[in-house]
């Protein structure tokens, strides 16, 4: 079983999505705030935005959809999570085997050598400026930006698990950002039953075996209860 998730699964926690009308990209220019070029142009601005998002995310909680996955995993040993989210909420909800395709907003790495830097989630940008790596490179958020490739081992492993899946949930993702958006198609082509959970239709909806057009925080706990009832 694969739970493939996008920003929508965290919407009910109060983390804005990117592409909906209240999403981040409706207010900010993604090419500046989420690209290496943008970062090189104005690293302070980009860090300000990430520190602000970190702060916001720390103050929210996982929602019943994240906890619903924990409950599924208590019954199914081979159930994994492949997320495009960087918000750490799957981990905080106690989900196991979480593959973070786009990194984690609380991680920091070196812009030049890529080394992971062990840093607190918050630092005083105004007084101390941007921290540096031993190599002299600037610290940057440990997330995948536009134009960057996804962590290769993680991606390979997730594709492998997707091809073996019997049941594949595609939850809260607009299915527009590749290569991650390829995953539900890959699952379908390899024989999985694919269930989409999203209040809105996506380019994948017509291919899904089942489309549940409801918020994931409502539908996942319900599904789990039905399952328990069926297994009892
Ligand atoms: N929480 C986060 O970590 C976060 C937040 C915003 C964006 N992102 C990044 O944005 C990229 C965007 O792609 P994406 O597909 O994940 O997000 P997206 O913003 O493109 O799409 C969000 C999807 O969630 C759906 N949705 C909204 N509310 C929902 C709910 N309550 N239940 C279920 N679905 C709901 C929307 O209809 C939409 O299809 C990814 O690269 C990801 O890294 C991450
Ligand atoms: Zn370095």
Listing every helix as H and every strand as E from the N terminus to the C terminus, the arrangement reads: EHHHHHEHEEEHEHEHEEH
Count of DSSP-assigned helices = 10
Number of strands: 9
Question: Low-confidence parts lasting 5 or more residues at pLDDT below 50?
Answer: none
CATH names the topology as: Rossmann fold
Query: How are the strands of the largest sheet arranged?
Result: 3-2-1-7-8-9
Write out the distinct hetero groups bound to the structure: nicotinamide-adenine-dinucleotide, zinc ion
Termini separation: 20 Å
Helix content: 25-40%
Assess the beta-strand content as a share of residues.
15-25%
Largest sheet features = 6 strands, parallel
Radius of gyration: 18 Å
Q: How confident overall, as mean pLDDT?
A: 94
Say which CATH homologous superfamily is assigned: TPP-binding domain
Q: What CATH architecture would you give?
A: 3-Layer(aba) Sandwich
What's the CATH class label?
Alpha Beta
- Domain count, please report it: 1
Class computed from helices, strands and strand pairing: alpha/beta
Silhouette:
elongated
């Amino acid at each position: 079983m694969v739970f493939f998730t996008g920003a929508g699964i965290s919407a009910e926690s109060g983390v804005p999505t990117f592409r909906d009308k209240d999403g981040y990209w409706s207010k900010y220019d993604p090419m500046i705030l989420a690209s290496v070029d943008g970062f090189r142009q104005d690293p302070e601005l980009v860090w300000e935005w990430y520190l602000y998002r970190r702060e916001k995310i720390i103050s929210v909680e996982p929602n019943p959809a994240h906890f619903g996955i924990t409950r599924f995993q208590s019954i199914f040993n081979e159930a994994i999570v492949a997320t495009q989210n960087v918000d750490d909420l799957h981990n905080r909800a106690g989900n196991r085997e979480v593959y973070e395709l786009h990194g984690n907003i609380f991680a920091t790495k070196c812009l030049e050598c890529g080394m992971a830097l062990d840093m607190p989630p918050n630092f005083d940008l105004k007084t101390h400026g941007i921290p540096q790596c031993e190599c002299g490179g600037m610290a940057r958020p440990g997330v995948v930006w536009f134009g960057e490739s996804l962590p290769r081992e993680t991606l390979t492993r997730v594709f492998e698990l997707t091809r073996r899946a019997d049941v594949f949930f595609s939850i809260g993702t607009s299915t527009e950002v590749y290569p991650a958006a390829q995953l539900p198609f890959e699952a379908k082509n390899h024989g999985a039953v694919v269930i989409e959970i999203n209040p809105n239709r996506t380019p994948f909806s017509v291919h899904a075996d089942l489309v549940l057009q409801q918020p994931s925080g409502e539908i996942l706990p319900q599904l789990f209860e039905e399952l328990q009832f069926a297994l009892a």
